[in-house]
Amino acid sequence: MKTKDLIKEGQKIVKDFNPKLKVHNIDIDLKENSGILFISLNPSDAKDKPESWHRNYNKESHFKMLDNFIEESKWEHIDLFFIKNKTSADIKKLIFEGSKEDKLTKFGRDQLDISLHIIEELTPKIIVVINALASKILKKEFGLEKLNEKGYYLWRNTPVFFSGMLSGGRSLDVGSRERLIWHIKKVLDDGL
Predict the structure, then answer these.
(1) Side-by-side strand order, sheet with 158-163
(2) Mean pLDDT of all residues in the chain?
(3) How far is Cα 13 from Cα 58, in angstroms, rounded to an integer?
(4) Helices 106-122 and 3-17 meet at what angle, rounded to 10?
(5) pLDDT in tens, 40-97
(6) What is the pLDDT of residue 29?
(7) CATH fold label, 3-190
(8) DSSP helix/strand/coil, 16
(9) Which of 74, 104, 161, 186 could form a disulfide with 35 if both were Cys (CB 3.0 to 4.6 A apart)?
(10) 3 state SS of 36
């Protein structure tokens, strides 16, 4: 299944589950071998953001931070879940069974499976997860337990970096963000 079809399927899962939920309206052309794939949890719905996420809009949003890692044409971004305008607490109630955050609901599982297919379709050179909960989910999903000797996780020969948010209230401090950027650039320059 092509990426655009997968996105439509992910959106359909949300609408079929609850037509009142806002759906992430992705308006970009995702490319294979995009370089770095940044992964967040779900799209926010701030008043100053358009209905659809688009690269041109990034220049005025927190996504402009991603250009610090690699030139603009060589990165892409996806969210694990297609639900828009929900707090982290609301998302947890929808995607997890109970409060332990160790088992996904059918609704959460179905969306995550679509996102995993999208990740496989894109075949990125590096994956950077920029949300703490998304990092926890993917670390478990990918079966990653230990950093390798170069200081990153490896999933199907793809380096994976887990991080918190890059901007906003609970984001990484400047020094940690600079080290993350340095580390990712080093992997891109040196290879595996």
Answers:
(1) 75-79, 36-40, 126-130, 158-163, 153-155
(2) 82
(3) 27
(4) 170
(5) 888 765 544 444 444 444 445 556 777 777 766 688 888 899 988 667 788 899 999 9
(6) 58
(7) Uracil-DNA Glycosylase, subunit E (3.40.470)
(8) helix
(9) 74
(10) strand
| pTM given for the model | 0.85
Query: How far, CA to CA in Å, does 10 sit from each of 5, 41, 47, 56?
Result: 9, 14, 24, 23
Q: Is 145 exposed, middle or buried (0-12, 13-18, 19+ CB in 10 A)?
A: exposed
Q: Per residue in 108-129, pLDDT tens? A: 999 999 999 999 988 889 999 9
| φ, ψ for residue 14, nearest 5 deg | -65, -50
Cβ-Cβ contacts under 8 Å for 76 (sequence gap 6 or more): 28, 30, 31, 34, 35, 36, 37, 38, 122, 124
How many residues make up the chain in this entry? 192
- What tokens does 173 get? 């401090």
